[in-house]
# Entry
Amino acid sequence: MQTHTETSLQTSAAPSSGEWLLEVQGLRTWFHTRRGVLKAVDGVSLRLQPGEILGLVGESGSGKSMTGFSLMNLVDEPGRIQAERMVFDGRDLLKMSADDYRRLRGKDMAMIFQDPMMTLNPALRVDTQMIEAVQAHEPVSRAEARERSVQALGKVGIPAPRERMRAYPHQLSGGMRQRVAIAIALLNKPKLIIADEPTTALDVTIQGQILYEVQKLCRETGTALIWITHDLAIVSGLADRLAVMYAGRIVETAPTADIVHGAQHPYTHGLLASIPTLATRGRELFQIPGATPSLLEMPEGCPFRTRCYRASPQCVQPPAMRELAPGHEASCWHSGGAA
Ligand SMILES: Nc1ncnc2c1ncn2[C@@H]1O[C@H](COP(=O)(O)OP(=O)(O)OP(=O)(O)O)[C@@H](O)[C@H]1O
# Structure
């Protein structure tokens, strides 16, 4: 059963149940703090096909990382994950033991973090870490694990990968460290990679290269990817589909071109309008007025209504997620020619 805050991400040619790689319904990640219940993720539903690239976009604090961490079961206390359904590759994630989840991570589901040092151990050489990552999931010889690691480094654009294998993380540049972390994520040919702003700290040229390489590798291997970012411009060149998050909820989702050329939710309009272009050079950039409401004290009804240029009295009622065109859904009373 879906509630008004939930979104269902699917393409027009939706696979029948059982063919989805990932099916999440009603995901809620709430933090029970002394100041109250902080609803970091509040009823997110999403579906991903094998090999699909989804861009999860939204401003800082909208719950993008927490959605990714929840899927990986990496949320610490006082966070609590609840969902009506979370199925990955036919396996029920809600019933999975901590040990099984650990086995899943790094094998079929891998994460690339903003800070590569969340993946890398500063005290160990790259080769030791990569060989261990292979052998933790497959009974292969050290020589084979080493060879696979060298190949993985080569695939993410690391020059002279055999020599780089001997380096400690601190001997590599930020871009190289992130490439190593990506190579580790790809090592065991995962079915899904969740990338949480992995290029934000890097300079723009390197960002572009890494993005291109990750996309190419996912296409080659059929790996699905959830790319989490606040940068709609970057992800629109990468993703098949976008999901726009606001205040812990997905407010719009559609194939990328439909969002870029036909966004329906006023929040998505605001995100698109704030992308710098050649035409806006030297001019002040558009900013969505106001600030995201506190996740501890959400307004009634539409969470965006306090900042929305289209807000009307109706918006104190929560808008349902509606399909406006095949595969294009938005939760706004005023979208798609509605009232
Ligand atoms: N351990 C925690 N305890 C309480 N609140 C938390 C905790 N971790 C995250 N949050 C809150 O959850 C909300 C969502 O955070 P999240 O990191 O998912 O946002 P985000 O969209 O990924 O933003 P950013 O791009 O800045 O990482 C934020 O309000 C954040 O303060």
Summary: Residues 31, 33, 38, 40, 58, 60-66, 79, 230, 295 surround adenosine-5'-triphosphate (CB under 6 Å). The chain has one domain: 50-65+103-337. The two ends are 25 Å apart (CA to CA). The CA atoms of residues 31 and 52 lie 30 Å apart.
